[in-house]
Structure to design on (343 residues):
């Protein structure tokens, strides 16, 4: 594996991890909102 | 044959943008819009967070359908100019990732819809995903030129799901909206397939212009426009909507019929010169947006 290839590999991994983290965070907020809305 | 050096190199993971592309975001906009209109046209109030959740589930469900469609049709997509740059045929993603992504989105959207909104909306959402993937993509698309007639039902579900998410039950108006999109799909898709028919022929997809010819397809476009027009205008005389929707639907549908008749009368066989077909295809998208927009405005204006 060349250094350029590995750098690209890590960049893609990091980008996907960031997007996944944002989605999970948004889902936590959404589920909290749903719980509150259903209690009202 | 691959060299040992190539075999040692792990494949690059797909970009997150490629996963997004799997969900067919452009198709999703129409799905989200019609679903939202179904929800807003319902005669009951839904909590904004629950309304947002319902639309999100419809959008994610549509994304799941798109991803599973691309997973199954990667071989077809590789043969068509319009689709060969998609993540799978372009080699930017492996098929298993697309399958896992599609299944996860589908299951997730149905479960959240069931838990947060209601079971009927979740059941219809599940049915729409399964219908699109199994009935349209796997069963019909490669077997019959009537593929998009029956497959069109899959795209007709969103306003029904939006309505059911708000009310918890099915009424006549969302059934008419379902019928409208169902009957709109053949003229919309056949107009497109007329001017890209060589693409479909190259991919071996038995679209109507490929199997039955250009003339028959043009006739079918005109014929399907008639029941579609009836379904579009019907809510007004049936007292389900007011004059705003009625007048908008009458005018928009009249223009749709004019464009469909132009397609029917055309004798052009050169795809590059098929202006009436392109005009109908473009207007058909605007037509659905405008019609559903008018429905929402009409309902919001009701006392």
């Amino acid at each position: 594996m060349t250094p350029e290839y590995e750098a690209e590999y890590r960049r893609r991994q990091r980008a996907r991890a960031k997007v996944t983290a944002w989605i999970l965070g948004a889902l936590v907020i959404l589920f909290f909102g749903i719980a509150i809305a259903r209690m009202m | 044959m691959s060299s040992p050096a190539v075999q040692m190199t792990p494949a690059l993971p797909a970009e997150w943008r490629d996963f997004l592309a799997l969900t067919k975001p452009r198709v999703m906009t129409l799905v989200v819009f019609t679903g939202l209109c179904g929800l807003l046209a319902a005669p009951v109030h839904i909590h904004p967070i629950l309304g947002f959740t319902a639309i999100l589930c419809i959008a994610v469900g549509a994304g799941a359908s798109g991803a599973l469609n691309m997973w199954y049709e990667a071989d077809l997509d590789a043969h068509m100019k319009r689709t060969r740059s998609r993540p799978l045929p372009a080699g930017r993603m492996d098929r298993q990732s697309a399958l896992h992504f599609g299944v996860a989105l589908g299951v997730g959207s149905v479960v959240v819809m069931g838990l947060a909104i209601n079971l009927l909306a979740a059941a219809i959402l599940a049915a729409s995903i399964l219908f699109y993937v199994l009935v349209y993509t796997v069963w019909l698309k490669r077997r019959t030129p009537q593929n998009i007639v029956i497959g069109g039902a899959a795209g007709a579900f969103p306003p029904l799901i939006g309505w059911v998410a708000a009310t918890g039950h099915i009424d006549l108006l969302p059934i008419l909206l379902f019928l409208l999109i169902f009957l709109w799909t053949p003229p919309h898709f056949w107009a497109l397939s007329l001017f890209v028919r060589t693409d479909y022929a190259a991919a071996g997809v038995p679209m109507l212009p490929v199997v039955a010819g250009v003339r028959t397809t043009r006739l079918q476009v005109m014929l399907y426009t008639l029941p579609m027009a009836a379904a579009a205008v019907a809510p007004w005389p049936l007292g389900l909507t007011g004059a705003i929707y009625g007048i908008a639907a009458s005018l928009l549908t009249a223009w749709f019929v004019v464009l469909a008749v132009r397609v029917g009368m055309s004798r052009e066989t050169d795809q590059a010169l098929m202006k009436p077909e392109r005009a109908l295809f473009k207007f058909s998208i605007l037509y659905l947006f405008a019609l559903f927009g008018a429905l929402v405005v009409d309902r919001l204006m009701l006392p």
Q: What stands out?
A: The radius of gyration of chain B is 20 Å. The interface with chain A takes residues 8-10, 12-16, 47, 49-50, 53, 56, 116 of chain B (CB under 8 Å).
